[in-house]
Design a protein that fits this description.
Helix content: 10-25%
Strand order of the largest sheet: 1-2-9-8-7
Shape: globular
Structural class: alpha/beta
Number of strands: 9
Order of helices and strands: EHEHEEEEEEEH
Radius of gyration: 16 Å
Length: 198
């Protein structure tokens, strides 16, 4: 069951251990104490999805460090890139390689590749993370749309678009709900739970 927490109230959370996954939906930045607590949560096995949009402040996210003092996110965020004129960007169906995207990757069976993206935050994987981060999806111009990285026992996903209408029509696609479901299910990592009892 999702719990929505407005940014002004996030400091009231005692911690993140009760959650299977956390989504930062176009959150500008976090208080340092909350950022440290979230980094600890991820290192201990939690899942984080950062959906970066126009409100997202790259200086905070690019400087956010994990418990081992490496960058927490799998890639660095750049400044907003806007589609020129009447053009638009879209996901490249041939590049949807992340396991959570498999159900929406089949051309003809999903409208995800038809998504119109009018603006996004480009991503660059820093040299220090080349062996740890992976590209899960790209746009039709070759830029990265989704990156992933394991941090300690947890996982972090970085999406270059927000989860609303401010950057295109992603939320109107039939593939949107399966996309979010699969991303959260992947982050929650249900296979990690031992359900068998002696």
């Amino acid at each position: 069951a999702p719990q929505v927490v407005p940014i002004p109230d996030i400091a009231t959370l005692s911690g993140f251990d009760e959650f299977d996954a956390v989504i930062l939906a176009d959150v500008p930045r976090l208080p340092s104490a909350v950022a440290d607590s979230l980094a600890d949560y991820i290192s201990g096995g939690g899942g984080l999805l950062v959906a970066a949009g126009q409100k997202t402040q790259p200086d905070f996210y690019n400087g956010w460090q994990s418990v081992d003092k490496t960058p927490l996110l799998p890639a660095s965020l750049g400044e907003i890139r806007i589609a020129p004129g009447d053009e638009a960007f879209s996901p490249s169906a041939q590049t949807l390689t992340h396991p959570a995207l498999q159900k929406i990757a089949e051309v003809g069976k999903s409208d995800f590749a038809d998504t119109v993206i009018t603006n996004y935050r480009p991503q660059t994987i820093p040299d220090i993370l080349v062996k740890e981060s992976s590209v899960g999806a790209r746009l039709n111009n070759g830029d990265i749309l989704l990156t992933a990285r394991q941090v300690g026992k947890g996982q972090v996903l970085l999406l270059g678009t927000p989860l609303d209408l401010s950057s295109g029509n992603l939320v109107t696609r039939q593939a949107f709900l399966p996309l979010i479901h699969e991303l959260v299910y992947h982050l929650a990592d249900p296979a990690a739970y031992q359900l068998n009892l002696d």
